[in-house]
Write a structure and sequence with these properties.
Helix 6 (about 150-165) links the parallel strand 5 (about 120-125) and strand 6. The chain has a 7-stranded parallel beta sheet with strand order 3-2-1-4-5-6-11, with helices on both faces. By secondary structure, the chain is α/β, with parallel strands linked by helices. The protein has 11 helices and 14 strands. It binds nicotinamide-adenine-dinucleotide. Nicotinamide-adenine-dinucleotide binds near residues 10, 86 and 200.
C-alpha cells in the first residue's frame, strides 16, 4: 500500500484522534484542522506522543473555503476524512439552524474547497441515526432512511449532497454510518471528552464511576427486550478507526477492492447490548458498583438498533474484533487517568 496523505476535518475530536493514530500506524501521513468548538489542542499533543510523530495542523473552520483549499493544496492531500460537525441530538432540537449551518453548510464549503484543490477522495462520518426508527435490526444499508431529529437530518442531507457530487463528477466517496462508538486507545492517553453533560451512555457511566457525577439514570426498563432496557450496537473506537483506514485505502485506485463512486457502509459490530448489560460490563472493568436508578423513558429512544456489518466486510475487508469488555477496560483506563478529560484538574490546575 503506498503511503497516502490524509486530511482530517475535526482532527482534535474523539474519533478523529483515534483514526490519526491508526493511519500513522499503517504508515500514512496525516494532516488536520479543527476549530476546537468541541475539543482541545491537548488531544493533538497526545496523538503525537502515541504515534511518535507530529500531525501538521491548522486551526480552521469548515466555513473557511479558501483557507481549506490552501491547506489541502499545501499538503498535497490524497483524501479527506470529514469528521467535523456538531453531534448532540438534544441540542440539535434546540438549535436546528446552527446544526444545519455547521454540518450541512460546512460540508458544502469543504466539498467546494476539495473540488478547487483537486482532492477527489472523501470519507464522511455519517451515523446510524439516518435509518428510520421503525426499521428492524439488523440494519442493512438499504433499510429505509428517516431521521427523527435535526442532527440525523444533517447527516442524511450531507450523504445526499455527497451522492450527487460523486455521481456527476469524479469525486469518490464512502459514507460511513457509525453505530455507537465507545472505548479509548489502550494507552489511556486519548479518549472521549464530552463538554458538559455527556449525551452518550458510556461516558456518562464512566463519569459516575470516577466520581464526577452522582448516578446514572436508566431511561425506562419496560422496553420489549430481555431485561427491559434498550439495545444498541457499541463499537470500540479502535475498531472504528481501523474501519476508516480500510475505507481510505479502498478509495485508492490502485489498491482498493473496487468501490462504486459513492457507497454507504455501516460500521458496527452486529451485536446488540442492553443498557443494563453495558452497565454490568462497566462495573466489571471499574471493579466497583456504579450507582444508578431507573427513571421515565426518554422521548426518541427506540427499542433495538444494531448493524448488519456484512457490507463493510465485503467491500472493505474489515470487521470489528474487540469486545464490550475491551471497550470498558480501555474507556476506564482513559477516564481514571484523566478524570477531567483534557482539562486541568480544577483542584490542582494540572
Ligand atoms: N461519537 C458518536 O457517537 C458518533 C456517532 C455517529 C456519528 N458521529 C459523527 O462522527 C464525527 C466525529 O464525532 P466525535 O464523536 O469525534 O465528535 P467530536 O465533537 O469529538 O469531534 C468533532 C470535531 O469537529 C470539530 N468541529 C465541529 N464543527 C467544526 C467546524 N465548523 N469547523 C472545524 N471543526 C469543527 C469539533 O471541534 C470537534 O473537534 C461527527 O461528525 C459526528 O457527528 C459520531
Amino acid at each position: 500500500m503506498p503511503s497516502l496523505t490524509v486530511a482530517l476535518t475535526g482532527a482534535a475530536g474523539y474519533i478523529a484522534s483515534h483514526v490519526a493514530v491508526a493511519l500513522f500506524e499503517r504508515g500514512h501521513s496525516v494532516v488536520g484542522f479543527d476549530n476546537f468548538s468541541n475539543s482541545s489542542p491537548k488531544s493533538l499533543e497526545r496523538v503525537a506522543q502515541i504515534a511518535d510523530t507530529h500531525m501538521p495542523f491548522e486551526q480552521l473552520d469548515l466555513a473557511d473555503t479558501d483557507g481549506i483549499e490552501a491547506f489541502l493544496r499545501a499538503h498535497q492531500v490524497d483524501a479527506v476524512i470529514h469528521f467535523a460537525g456538531l453531534k448532540a441530538v438534544g441540542e440539535s432540537t434546540e438549535q436546528p439552524l446552527r446544526y444545519h449551518e455547521n454540518n450541512v453548510g460546512g460540508s458544502l464549503s469543504l466539498l467546494r474547497a476539495m473540488e478547487n484543490a483537486g482532492v477527489r477522495h472523501l470519507v464522511f462520518s455519517s451515523s446510524a441515526t439516518v435509518y428510520h426508527p421503525d426499521e428492524a435490526s439488523p440494519l442493512r444499508e438499504d433499510a429505509s432512511l428517516g431521521p427523527i431529529n435535526p442532527y440525523g437530518a444533517t447527516k442524511l442531507m450531507v450523504e445526499q449532497i455527497i451522492g450527487d457530487v460523486a455521481t456527476y463528477s469524479d469525486l469518490r466517496a464512502i459514507n460511513l454510518r457509525y453505530f455507537n462508538p465507545v472505548g479509548a486507545h489502550p494507552s489511556g492517553l486519548i479518549g472521549e471528552d464530552p463538554v458538559g453533560t455527556p449525551n452518550n451512555l458510556m461516558p456518562f457511566i464512566m463519569q459516575v464511576a470516577v466520581g464526577r457525577r452522582e448516578q446514572l439514570n436508566i431511561f425506562g426498563d419496560d422496553y420489549d427486550t430481555p431485561d427491559g432496557t434498550p439495545i444498541r450496537d457499541y463499537i470500540h473506537v479502535m475498531d472504528l478507526a481501523e474501519g476508516h483506514v480500510a475505507a481510505v485505502e479502498a478509495l485508492h485506485p490502485t489498491t482498493g477492492p473496487g468501490v462504486d463512486n459513492v457507497e454507504a457502509i455501516n460500521l458496527g459490530t452486529g451485536v446488540g447490548s442492553s443498557v443494563k448489560e453495558v452497565l454490568a460490563a462497566a462495573e466489571q472493568a471499574v471493579d466497583h458498583p456504579i450507582p444508578h436508578q431507573v427513571v421515565e423513558r426518554r422521548a426518541g429512544d427506540g427499542t433495538v438498533s444494531y448493524a448488519d456489518p456484512g457490507r463493510a466486510e465485503a467491500l472493505l475487508g474489515w470487521r470489528a474484533t474487540r469486545t464490550m469488555a475491551d471497550a470498558c477496560v480501555d474507556h476506564w483506563r482513559w477516564q481514571e487517568r484523566n478524570p477531567h478529560g483534557f482539562a486541568p484538574d480544577p483542584a490542582t490546575d494540572e
